[in-house]
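As a warm-up, study this chain.
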Amino acid sequence: MATINDVAERAGVSVTTVSRVLNNRGYISEKTRRKVYETMAELNYQPNEIARSLLRKQSNLIGLIVPNVSHPFFGELTDAIEYYAYRQGFKLLLCNSQLDPAKERDYIEMMKRHRVDGIIMGSHTLEVGEYRNLNYPLVTLDRRIDAIPYVASDNYRGGELAAQLLIEKGCRKIAHFCGNLQLDMLSNDRTSAFEEKIREQGIEFITLQTDMNVFDQREYERLMAKLFGSHPDIDGVFATSDIIASFVIKWCRKLEKRIPEDIRIIGYDDVNAASWVSPAITTIKQPIEEMGRLAVELIRKQMDGEPYESENVLPVELVERATT
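Now compare it with the structure written out below.
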């Protein structure tokens, strides 16, 4: 196996020059840089990344923990984070917590062993004190924990927009599907705003929460059966994800309810699938790409000692399609 000394000898430069090329430090002419890279390719030289990270005290790795990467929102957010991380010279260490505190804790310990430069937390099952004590550049998604910077969309405004549209469409009995409100998430503001707006107008509504596993599709089926069994006269639905909204569409077909004539449906997120299903889902659009970009930027700023905003709330918008 070729060593850094072999590369230096073949390229006709010093070991220090090869090291500077590898670590992008100091002035190196483009001719010398190209010669070193060509020699590395000829010798099939693989730099020791662990040794390099110890030398630089930087691994160029960012850890990302999400609850369920198969969920379209987290899949698209992960894609955006990876894209912007790579553009800034970072690789992504992706972990899927499945909302299991022990698993989340194990992944954090693994990230420490890999000397990640920062951690983006999209899964929040641990106690607040455990996040406080990490001593890493941290960014949380949709959760406020002390002074740790967070990225979220304007959840309150999203709930308002959904309520306003269903009111304008003349809905008189509205169901609201949301995650479990015992979870300390900023997304709970969607429910708060929605319920406040509906109450102001004196409109009847029913709120149905998932259990703690907010991504369990069997739970969605149970909630649909409960809603349509007890309240067959529902004429409007606001779901806090496009996936739940798609389950409402499925049940409406099963019960031969016309959309939007008999019932109007609004989702949340505006994942790609929201425009693919039929009828296409009216939804509250989160700026997923910008959320991913900003999360990476906040990690970098903490690493470089630059000033940053702790509270980062991005605007949402209503995207009206065929379900309303």
